[in-house]
Amino acid sequence: MVAALDIGGTKIAGALVDAGGRILARARKPTPAGEDAETVLGAVGEVLDALASSPHRDAVEAVGIGSAGPVDAARGTVSPVNVPGWRDFPLVERVGSAVGGLPVTLVGDGVAMTAAEHWLGAARGHTDALGLVVSTGVGGGLVLGGRLHPGPTGNAGHIGHLSVDLDGDPCACGGRGCVERLAAGPHIARRALDGGWRPGPDGDASAAAVAGAAREGHPAAVAAFDRAARALAAGIAATAHLVEVDIAVIGGGVAGAGEILFGPLRRHLADYATLSFARGLTVVPAATGTDAGLLGAAAAARAAF
Length: 305
Known about the structure:
This protein is an alpha/beta fold. Helices cover 36% and strands 20% of the residues. The protein has 2 domains: 2-108 and 294-303, Nucleotidyltransferase, domain 5 (2-Layer Sandwich); 122-287, 2-Layer Sandwich (Nucleotidyltransferase, domain 5).
């Protein structure tokens, strides 16, 4: 049994997860993202306390945490962009103290999603896989040689900040032309707006609204998703050429666009994944849904045993 935490800018979720991936207890609190560090930690503590009321609590052997990043697993610290009160916050130490010294494993949220998909989702049975979370940002993780490969700091596979356009726009990370800068939801929406698309009467200017317009054939909406798909294809192919993954699993809100994203992505992938060992690379939607963060945190903790 593992206690899992999924920590993001809007919610802190917790679960007790057994060896078969069944969630036997749940807890959830809103993230007090605008508050100070101890207040945010207090919400984590409330989630852990709720899990401790479960009759399964005595079977818990470890804790896994999947957190919005940046994370530094080597130091046990987190600095989530959307939780400004936590900067180099010693989350592993503080959670470890709260759970009586049980081992605590920390990974980034993209790595957690990848772990979930390899354990129970679309990458199950694959020895080498890339996972991507395409939402307000673009994150990722790797499975290599049949094992989760989080890297020394828990960030390996962070495809969102792989540069695919050397003369592209500056990215928030300090780089230029990053996958995230072209394929994240807000950038898809901005590209569509720049191309002449306009929201409907409800004022919804999200990537989901752009996807709806693309389904109806709006040229600027179609072009915005095509550009995002091409950036993702370039990043996925570069990763496959570097470490020989044979499947890429994509989750996150933007993946909800379905074939509006996956159709052009697969077409562009054929132009980028050109080496013989990468041509068979497949791209599929994630299968673990909203529980991916919790299941992935549990999987990462199990892998660290």
